[in-house]
Amino acid sequence: MTEMTPIAMPRLNEPAPDFDAPTTQGRKTLADYRGKWLILFSHPADFTPVCTTEFIGFAKRHEDFAALEAELLGLSIDSTHSHIAWVLSIREKFGVGIDFPIIADLNMKVASAYGMIQPGASDTAAVRATFIIDPEGVLRAMVYYPMTAGRSVDEIYRLLLALRTSDENACSMPENWRPGDPVIVPAPTTPQEAQARHAEGYNTVDWYFSTREL
Questions:
Q1: What distance in Å separates the CA atoms of residue 160 and residue 31, rounded to the nearest whole number?
Q2: Where are the alpha helices (DSSP H) in 8-152?
């Protein structure tokens, strides 16, 4: 039986893997994004239908991400020339401009560091992976999709907004949280705090489950 080589995977709440790579807008490093949130997302290949819809989706929400102080950065194991030709094709055929940079990762160095190469899916293409990196360079979220299903840009935006809101308000978000919904209050950590919870003015269902409005 052939032994499989373990995939190097980044870990949540640890520094994101560093990179220094050519893009459609010059060389980019992780340090270039210090002080802002970064949405780093990979796609299997240029000039493919599902990836085209994803890039159009990200492009249409580019200003929304920018309003949250977040930058977009694409990646695939294609050349810069291929990226440029694809961007021009999307503008010509779909009327959508791709204004964010795309990493040309021909040596698969960035894709390997971020665990974007999944042998069960492909040894030569990056799967649909999305990484949210905070202004301190810490990896806060990662989401993987299969080759055949395009990711939800709306969900990536919602996740970024939830992370920012959680950081700013010391709270957690319930399932499918949206702006304006109640947030979850941190649970008590001692029996005394648990006994006092009902008197603290939150919407408390049980001692461990309380919500509040922002």
A1: 20
A2: 49-60, 62-67, 80-94, 109-113
Contact indicator for 125, 44 with CB cutoff of 8 Å: yes
Q: What would the pLDDT profile of 5-39 be if each residue is shown by its tens digit?
A: 556 689 999 999 999 999 999 999 999 999 999 99
pLDDT single digits (tens) 57-78: 999 999 999 999 999 999 998 9
Tell me if domain 20-151 and domain 170-214 are identical in fold: no
- Angstrom distances, CA of residue 175 to CA of 52, 155, 181: 29, 12, 10
51 is catalytic: yes
Cβ burial of 42 (10 Å; 0-12, 13-18, 19+) is buried
**Domain 170-214 adopts which CATH fold?**
Antioxidant, Horf6; Chain A, domain 2 (3.30.1020)
| Structural fold of domain 20-151 | Glutaredoxin (3.40.30)
Cβ 96 vs Cβ 66: under 8 Å: no
Mean of the per-residue pLDDT values of the chain: 92
3-class SS of residue 192: helix
Active-site hit among 16, 30, 51, 183: 51
pTM above 0.70, yes or no: yes
Question: What is the model's pLDDT at position 126?
Answer: 74
